[in-house]
Design brief:
4 copies of one chain form a homotetramer. The first copy, chain A, contains 13 helices and 21 strands. Chain A is α/β, with parallel strands linked by helices. The first copy, chain A, folds into 2 domains: 3-344, TIM Barrel (Alpha-Beta Barrel); 349-441, Sandwich (Immunoglobulin-like), CATH 2.60.40. In chain A, the strands form 5 sheets. Chain A has an 8-stranded parallel sheet. In chain A, strands 14-15-16-21-18-19 form a 6-stranded antiparallel sheet, with helices on both faces. The longest helix of chain A is centred in the middle third of the chain and has 17 residues, at 161-177. The radius of gyration of chain A is 22 Å and the shape is globular. Chains A and D meet through α8 and α13 of A and α8 and α13 of D.
Chain lengths: 442, 442, 442, 442
């Protein structure tokens, strides 16, 4: 098995975190899956992902003091493996785990994903609990010095055969449930130890090995970022996607910063290997954080976000509560012209990045279509210009063999308006924080 | 109560770690106390300190893999407080704790000390165990992100009234046992977090407050080093001694390095406030580490160590198994001339430090005696010289009011030989790694 | 010669920088000296210091672009030594240097100081200019990789006999002029090289040696800060004062920060060794910076500054143009009660420092007087309290032998009001950023 | 002009540094060019590069003390531009510069390159020398705080129109000489400032702009390394090659380390954009360093070096004195099978890297040939194995569309021996530090 075949294009889906925080339940997951099947599936959206602490009793009940309640009760099987809290996920009762919910999602023609924290439950280690299919016990597998800086549930796993046995037992269980996607947290950048932010490299490898062994093509997503550019090869070898920022939310500063992240990672995108810009913070957000609100992004900013994520080729995970989507937001995530830039075969290339603007190009050798996007990063209307020579050089560097003609017939992908690129420079007047995305045939 | 009055001179005693590691038992502690009372007490030695993991069952039983066995069983009372392992400390059975052993040590005219790890037992937090005299439980007191990088037993304590209640309950228990000295570990420099090596500052303050409240003048010693020079005032406000290096052992490189540490800390010594050079690695060492041996230091190096520790004013804690002391080693630690430099009133001052040599002076305004020591740091016999003008300047800077006379009558304190300091320079021929310490009347 | 005898108390004087920047001239220096002799000398003020670039032609003429004009013309003698620009200092013409101006200052009963940049003029190195009393030339003395990050005039000097010869020639010249005080810049913290901020340690030593050789007791002041606490001993061995901050100006944030600096350095003050809080930014300031203004400090903040500098024992250098001093400012710098805390024998000790307040104590064993100061660091009126037990402990730690009595009769030094300290706590209501300083007999 | 077209394949040539240090002269350059034309040109070798300090009088004459003599005399034209020292380059006399030597090299069908230090001569700045075609003078262009940490000749250039004018004047001159290749030093990583190792980013851009303006397709090579991976895009935008290590010499430790560098940079290779492993340290080396010797690399190590450089796609610059090449060395650099892996279209991919071995694959979509190389990094004979599944995944990730067949017919490129790759693993026994490189048709 080659893990790059598990996700031939950047995964598209929905994730429960941005709206529900730690509190999502079975009914809510199903409602979002239903919506996706009915309205989004035909545009490529397919993953339904249950995010953090589905195993924690009382998750979210002390939200004023803790996001993750220290030393709280966790649902766990007899083999040190966390199980869904049956209060929130009734179908998981009696050891069924997420199998029923996964089956439901599959029945809609969608895929099912879960979040995990790297490691083994702390309480299992303290209780010397058994490991499935192994003579080892959890205290032998857990590394007492390897903790997460922001979540109290787990200890890291030692780089030993016993540790591998634990991860194998985990993936075997998840595969039996029908899990298609795992978002593993506290592993892409273990920021607790500033001098070794890649302290869990061996756990990434162990997860990868366990996936290959389990026989199910489970997509592996690593969190949180920022991923370390000097470890690009290691991510590419072992995972399908890795977060290039810390948690992304609906504020302009973070969106602006994403341009720098994309500059950094543009060379490290290939089929099955996706630097991840994080969830799309649009629509209704924040209920589980006691802060339910419509995205703080302006519509122009939302277009900028969608354009950058798609042109760059990031995985797309919707943060919005789907059942509350309005028409305008829906139009953003169902624009087939924009979405067609997503696959890795459509290779992106930054042309420039200044305080006031960014320019990107992309070229798809399969379709022989070229794209460029002009972004206004300034706080007022601004003319953004690109030279034909720069565009030529950028497209050549991502595989375009021919030369650009004298006159290029452009189509803008948000407005569908036509335009002509004449020598030597093309200029667009763009609102604050907005963008224009042009496509042409080569 | 002013904690500076608890230790008017640098504490002198014995510590179980260098010989026993985690394994010392009651009989061994008593044997060392007996020896101290019989042979060393009259020279000022008085503290008997039981070092790390006296509460851990099976401590040392997996020494090939772990110094501290992860998730092992710890003796604990009903209030989240660790108790002596009764297998090793039979008198501690039935909740007596260290009271009987402390009483024995006191009966010899000596003082009794224990080692603790900062924090609250991890297992107590996971079990939501009660806190004495408080409605809080251990899970509310423990900080799940605050761990020790090298010992798996504890969680750090939150900076809250509940956290203070826990430390108060601890000190109340120790005071009831008759503890005179606490060496708290993982607190002076919490090296796990490289970007915040002083992450337990609040626990130092909480310990200090708990000591003042407990009514017993318990000396507070902080480990491990290196202490942070920029926190000198904070150590001075809250503790009696703090380690200025990581664990010190019997190798020349570490002893040589101590000269740099002493340079750094020489301004921060005062009554009740002692930068600590760590245990004296002489005599028999290492049995608990499966490495029983006579100190690797040459006799000259041992003289250098004793001279530096005393002139600098470091606490003196013997690492040797006392019952196995030989005559030569005994002579080193019972030299009253050398020991008289120890008190803070005898203020030290470095004159120079190069790759090959170090020179220190000291002046005691109470006795009007002055000292200087010449150290040969090179690997062969070497002439070390000091100028009278340098010596004058150094002694003046630590309080000598008068001018040095034309001719100074010196006594060397190890050999008791006499010598004369004539203008402009005094030179001694010193063996490799050795020293000469001179005293004169001002 | 012991350099600690050159400045038995913290130097007090005036420095041209804060008002004139690089532009001060002979007449202006004399006018300030005249004022000092007439009005301030009797309170202890005595140094008149000409600050940076007295050797630069056209200094200040491109102030909109450069503080220090790159590659500008510098007045230099035949031996690579900078000389005063005769346009600004007419008496320096014909090689007289600062001798005439120094003589004028001396005639007023005051002392004369100059600023220098460490190193040798870059242009001298490029021209292979000679060194006085040496066969070496400037290119052999200059280190082409050692530059100042903010001033373009000099190269650092190599740690060689030829380098020492250059510094000897410099000090010999300055001594012949009658210089009493040298403020050397780019030497206390050579911030250009972040990984080695003490890159000019050898030049500090060379300057110290050259001063001892020159036969004149020239006070050595090192700039800029922040001085490195881990080099405290080295500063103490070689210099009389060293800056503990970068340039200090009249804004509250910097004044507030000085409390942290003083906490850091309080252990490293002794006769002849003074951590330096920098110039007193009061009165008229900033003319040479095209920003002439009255100090931005409120009167309360000015009292806080004077109180901290004096209690801590910092050198006092007036930044104000003296001829423009008003009565209120004059009262601040001529308060004998406040100034009497200045000498090192009056040892300071911080009692506490929080976001809202600071408390310091001091004890003078020579006079048996004790002091404590309460500072309100918050932005509104605030009650600041000190416990008697804290005060007792703090004073004991700086040499007070006796115990505080039941009732202490206090005098506040700014208002001269009386008060009583009764058990267990003394409280004062203090305006924002203000202070109260109390004295009592022990 | 698109700079990526200037070097459609990684440049191959000879550089004077490794053999001559700073001392190479015209005759020696010609002799090497002659050899190249006669023996190497037909294999693709074409650049003849004169390395550092061709402008310095007396270069190398104080080699015991300085590699680069501080403040020495530099040949310079009237416009602040350095010129070849006519003593060593007689044809450069009378302002001819390198035009005659370039013409000679061109006459052999080869290309001519020179080394420069970024910046403007320090002496020009101190003398306010003119800039060609500009009213600015050198003091206005030079940044006095921007120096090189290891070479004393230059100041960095300010990011201003005047600075651009200087670089334009420089490239205009070099283009008029017929220069084809510039290796610019102290620019890829300006290590002097540890906290800003990319301090000359603007000078890279200015050089790039000046090249585009000068009308000649001059290849731009940046030194020294290590290049900063987070700046990959910026290098790609502005330069043709950039050093990924500090100076590479003939010791195994550095060669072993190169595998880590290649891991890091493998995603950032494209046509016209080449991460540079530095000169090939083989043949006779070191004469100018007073250390003439045959490469210290074993023959196996030399094969490893050639294999890695070619498979990775590094530029190839010979460090050897060409006229002294022996047959065996010649065979290494004229192996067409190995050299055919060089072009960027042959995309490399690391499969694994451990302490003991490394495995790389490469795929050329133009020829449909695949390669893999097994490297033994251990110090003894070692069996290195690769799995077919790993190889399949690696080749797929660099563009191979098909699946590997059951049986693959391999040819080893150094020995020309045949072998078969059967399921599931292929193993070769390889001498210490040696390699095997296999090619097969897809």
């Amino acid at each position: 098995m080659d893990k790059n075949t598990f996700a031939p294009t950047p995964p598209m889906g929905w994730n429960s975190y941005d709206y529900y925080d730690t509190t999502v339940n079975e009914q809510q997951v199903k409602a979002n899956a239903d919506y996706m099947a009915a309205h989004l599936k035909k545009f490529g959206w397919e993953y339904v992902v249950v995010d953090i602490q589905w195993y924690a009793h009382g998750a979210g009940s002390m939200r004023d003091k803790f996001q993750y309640i220290p030393f709280s009760q966790l649902e766990m099987d007899d083999y040190s493996r966390l199980m869904p809290d049956p209060t929130r996920f009734p179908s998981a009762a009696n050891g069924a785990g997420f199998a029923p919910l996964a089956a439901y999602v599959h029945s809609l023609g969608l895929k099912f994903g879960i979040h995990i924290m790297r490691g083994i439950p702390r309480i299992a280690a303290h209780h010397h609990a058994p490991i499935f299919n192994s003579t080892a016990t959890a205290d032998q597998v857990a590394d007492p010095t390897s903790i997460c800086g922001w979540n109290p549930d787990m200890y890291g796993v030692r780089n030993t055969p016993e540790g591998q046995a634990y991860y194998d037992s985990l993936l075997s269980l998840y595969a039996s449930w029908g899990v298609d996607f795992i978002k593993c947290d506290d592993i892409c950048n273990t920021s607790l130890y500033r001098e070794n932010q890649y302290s869990a490299a061996h756990e990434i490898e162990m997860l990868h090995r366990a996936i290959l062994k389990c026989g199910r093509p489970i997509v592996l997503s690593l969190s949180p970022g920022p991923a370390l550019i000097e470890k690009a090869w290691h991510y590419q070898q072992n995972a399908n996607m890795w977060r290039i920022t810390d948690d992304f939310w609906d504020n302009w500063k973070q969106l602006e910063d994403m341009f720098h992240r994309c500059e950094l990672w543009q060379n490290s995108i290939s089929v099955g290997c996706y630097p991840d810009c994080d969830m799309l913070a649009l629509g209704k957000l924040g209920k589980g954080f006691s802060n339910e609100h419509d995205t703080h992004f302006t519509f122009e900013e939302q277009q900028t976000m969608m354009s950058l994520w798609c042109l760059f080729g990031s995985p797309l995970m919707l943060g919005a509560e789907l059942t509350l989507l309005d028409e305008k937001t829906l139009s953003l995530i169902t624009n087939r012209d924009i979405l067609e830039m997503l696959p890795a075969v459509c290779r992106p290339r930054q042309i420039c990045l200044t305080k006031n603007h960014a320019i990107w190009a992309a070229y798809n050798s399969a379709t022989n279509k070229a794209y460029f996007a002009l972004f206004n990063l300034s706080d007022s209307v601004f003319d953004v210009s690109v030279c034909k020579s720069e565009l030529q050089a950028a497209l050549a560097s991502v595989g375009m063999q021919s030369s650009l003609p004298e006159q290029i017939a452009l189509q803008e992908l948000w407005s569908t308006e036509k335009a002509d690129f004449l020598q030597p420079m093309f200029t667009a007047t763009i609102p604050a924080h907005g963008c224009r995305v042009y496509r042409f045939e080569v």
